[in-house]
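Worked example

This section walks through a single chain of length 275. The input is the sequence exactly as stored; nothing has been trimmed or padded.
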Amino acid sequence: MFSPLLPHAPARAQAILAEPIVSQAHVLELVEKLAADLSPVLEREGKGARCLRLTLFRVDGETVEAEIRLAVASRAAGHIAKLFALKLDALSEDYDAGFGFEAARLDVTAAEHMAPSPTGLADDSDAAQTAKLSLLIDRLGSRLGLENVMRASPRDTHMPERAMVLKPAAHYAEQSWEEAPMRPLLLLPCAEPAEVTALLPEGPPLQFSWRGVRYTTAHAEGPERLRPEWWRDLRTRPRDYYTVEDEDGRRFWMYRDGPYTGGETPRWFVHGVYA
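Given that input, the structure is written out below as tokens.
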């Protein structure tokens, strides 16, 4: 009879118990102890765990397994135990202690470099906020799967409807948003036509109708000309965007399909609404 070789584990901790344990609370206490035993091993190598597998050995020879993945490498025993608690709750139908568990093993199946954690961080520091976000992603990932926890990421394009893409939050690379232009809070799925009255064909709206309601312009800023990528779609025309505020303080993001050449009636669209 052949036994398959277990995958190589960068770090492993195990325990043989004097008395079998049954309750999930005792299992989680044991998990936290095993994770604490792994922490100095990983710290010496300058690494943190990204994936861990827990194997519980029952008295009758059967095993129960659970695996977690982390968005960011970690050595925090308490955090690892909480993620396993969520995982065991999700696997409650398959969790069967039988006559009890007499041994347990915690394997780090994936690890990566982990920078030393600075001390004395203020609660509102960037590093502290990043750590809190990573904990949230881990907890959501334990319930939903890390691949299902998404985060908006910018793309290198001028066209607003293509400027964002959703990517798994665990693989998100922090990017600077300082130079991003102001955009409305609500971007419509598709730009909607509007009937516009303007003093000049190439000027901002004086009045416009959208969704059956007529608005009178109090202030307008623009135009901001956005051009599509020439290699993507030659049929898409440049757009002249305006931020338009009506007499009641409502603000709209509108564009004129351009450029206006004088040979045709300009077409106007509402693309977004500010808060």
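What to look for: The helical segments are 24-44, 77-90, 126-144.
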